[in-house]
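I hope you will forgive my troubling you with a question about protein structure. I set the record out below, with my sincere thanks for your time.
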Amino acid sequence: MCRSSSRERREQNMPDLTTTKKLFFVNKRTWILILGIILFMPPLSFLFQITQDSSFCGSWCPRMFFTWRNGITGGAFLMGMARSFMGVALVMGVLVSTFFLGRIWCSHLCPVGGASELGSRLVPQKIKIRLDAIPASPVRYGYLTAYLLLPALGLGSLCCSYCNFATVPRMFGAAFSQADMAFFFRSAGVINLGLLVGLGFMAKGGRGYCNLLCPVGALDSLINRLGDKYGRRFRVIPDRCNGCGLCRGACPVWAIDVGAKARINQFSCLPCGSCLKACPQQAIRYGLKKEIGADRVQDAPPYSLIHPDGKDFAV
């Protein structure tokens, strides 16, 4: 009885943060994505001008500095971090913000994921590829493992050969640079463009590459889960959820399981707010776990397989 009364009081006192008008970063997300592209992508690339770089390939590289190559010395590893000092600062800033606020960089500011998603919005829904039958976590962390182990074992590197942070800027710069245009006539360029088109532009939600093959995104998702107890996340209020599944259909990274109630997988969730907009029950909100009540929040299992026909189960 006391527990029930406590829950009722908490429900009555819970701030209504379920409308998009009260969440600026959800309501204006498209414009924020465009801003991220303007800041990082050719022909303007405003932020790169600070360090006289022209792209992420240089001091802004967010991928190479945390890979350990076979035979490298500790000093050489630290020198690599020093050369990519802006990339180190960027990734550290991303991870810290994710711990407390959720994956805001990935969902709002990343120009690579933003370009992929915005491009996907231009493709008719009926010809898009559904990727939600793929268990994202095993693929994501399997790729991250290969990304880290291959150079450490001297078996090659995925860092520059298959890099979304190089491919998308070159796509924007192809109209202005012969070197960028020539990249797409080489085998590596064709493969990278194919991955971008298949997992990005042609994918439902436009975030397949982000969810499966981005090593920065994989690290970010781990921090998102580790900070779940302490940071703000999108969460389902079970008392309001009727299990309709509309939130799952709206999620671009297939991060929601729906059984009797919806459950959000914090390993995959981007705080884009698509689920919030889709929910007719106002059963999803952005906030701290303690604001809702830790005993009420239900999280999806980290490895989930969601079938397009609506069935779902943990693996």
